[in-house]
Amino acid sequence: MKYDVIIIGGGLGGLTAGAKLAKEGKDILLLEQHDRPGGCATTFKRRDFTMEVGLHEMDGLHPTDGKTKIFNELGLFDKVTFLPVPEFYRFCNGRTDLVMPHDREAASDLLKKHFPAETAGIDNYFHRLMNARRINILERDKPDISIGEYLDSIFTSEEIKLVLLGNLGYFHDDPYTLSLRYFSIAEGAYFNGRANFIQGGSQELSNALMDIIREHGGKVLLNHKVTEIALNKGTLESVSFINNLPGNHSTIKASAKEFIANAALPQVASMMNDDTGKALAQEISGHKTGASLLTVYYGFSRSLKSLGHKYYSTFVFHDSVKSQKDIRANNRTDFAERGFTFVDYSQVDARLTGEGKSVGAICCIDYLSDWEGLSKEAYREKKHVVETVFTKRLEALIPGCSSHIEHAEVATARTVKRYTLNPGGAVYGFAQLPGRAPLSALEAFNNLHIASAWGKFGGGFSGAIFSGYMTAVDLLRKMK
């Protein structure tokens, strides 16, 4: 079997690249080891409930957002319904309780009302976010710093820094090792326009992209895992893959002119059959793998909105976190004190369950090292303890909700690694450290291209989509 392009991995980056290339008439083969497309942009069913794996809110889709152009071009707005999210987030920590709006002016006014001594810093902050791309270009010859250093330079109040870092877990686990340039673009995208949830869950977006590939003659093989990549003098020639389903392990081989890596780059390096794999491993060795996430999925017998709960996403910091310097240690502490997010999908027409019921999720930073080496029984018991702890904390946040829980289960960093094969269960690819050189091309190869959270644009839904689309555009120019 010979194709124009073989895509290794069916996450959002690979799917977006495949959809664009297929629409342009290229012969595509996309191989995904899981039984569904999407990577972290997936859902799964439990009883009456559709559980959303990855998406809390996706920034953008305003007229000037790059994803708007991409989705229009691919015809995704005809296939997928995007629901505006009511607010950016609620932040609470026992001292402060604020609801941050998406509108930049409203957010600025709210912060100035609560922190009147920080007016100059607030103006500085929003100017930076709203003009992030231009400022980053102007400062390209200056050293990048962390968002933590930046906030320290413009604010004296530790409390306002914590409020502004409420959704830090969308990107990283430590403000002092997160690039200001990366954060300002990513966070600014939320304040530049609305944010959205995908009706029916993010699987709808992934399925729609897969359908576009197939509608234009491309081939998507689910449950097919690449086991080996064959090379000749730095040029990829073919991949070997197997069917993951029981009893179907014969090896299949396919070749192509160009290859796209949507899988984690360390995983791609391990698939290579000569010293070139070592060259790739060496090339990416200076990039640190990011953190993972733990999620507790809940199915409720009634809508939490009907219980009087008002907020789509709530970020809870423990009272012991007094400054941003405490965040990193808190992300490693006991789950009874670790900061978390709770997303209440009943606040929008999510259609994740039947009428009258609802779905919610608690999410926090997690690390694979905390779950490795446990026996099956010990692993199950630790997850049960975590579920109990977080359910108690959720009951304190939304009194009465625990009596309506019909289903609850925990997914850990170990779960993420199992389903995505990402090293460390990393959900955002490489950590976006200050000054990190973005991976836009691989020096060791001339026909392997990156379309994932591990590449130039970083993690998250938007980063993966941009990576996939721009990889396809660059490939089309090359192939032309």
Please tell me what the overall shape is: globular
CATH architecture of the largest domain: Alpha-Beta Complex
Query: Per CATH, what is the topology of the largest domain?
Result: Polyamine Oxidase, Chain A, domain 2
Straight-line distance between termini: 22 Å
Give a short account of the largest sheet: 7 strands, mixed
Tell how many strands the DSSP assignment holds: 19
How many domains comprise the coordinates? 2
The CATH class of the largest domain is Alpha Beta
- By secondary-structure content and strand pairing, the structural class works out as alpha/beta
- Mean of residue pLDDT values: 95
Q: Which ranges are low-confidence, i.e. pLDDT below 50, for 5 or more consecutive residues?
A: none
How large a portion of the residues is in β-strands, by DSSP E? Answer: 15-25%
Rg measurement, Å: 22 Å
Helix content: 25-40%
- Provide a count of the helices: 15
How would you describe this structure to a colleague?
By secondary structure, the chain is an alpha/beta fold. The protein has two domains: 2-41 and 201-288 and 439-479, FAD/NAD(P)-binding domain (3-Layer(bba) Sandwich), CATH 3.50.50; 89-198 and 292-366 and 372-411, Polyamine Oxidase, Chain A, domain 2, CATH 3.90.660. The protein has 15 helices and 19 strands. It has helices at residues 12-23, 66-74, 104-114, 119-130, 132-138, 147-154, 158-164, 180-192, 203-215, 265-271, 275-284, 327-330, 376-397, 413-420, 460-479, and strands at 2-8, 28-31, 43-46, 49-52, 58-59, 82-84, 89-92, 97-100, 195-198, 219-221, 224-232, 235-243, 251-261, 292-300, 313-316, 340-344, 358-366, 405-411, 448-450. The strands form four sheets. Strands 1, 2, 10, 11, 12, 13 and 19 form a seven-stranded mixed β-sheet that branches. β12 (235-243) and β13 form a beta hairpin. The longest helix is centred in the C-terminal third of the chain and has 22 residues, at 376-397.
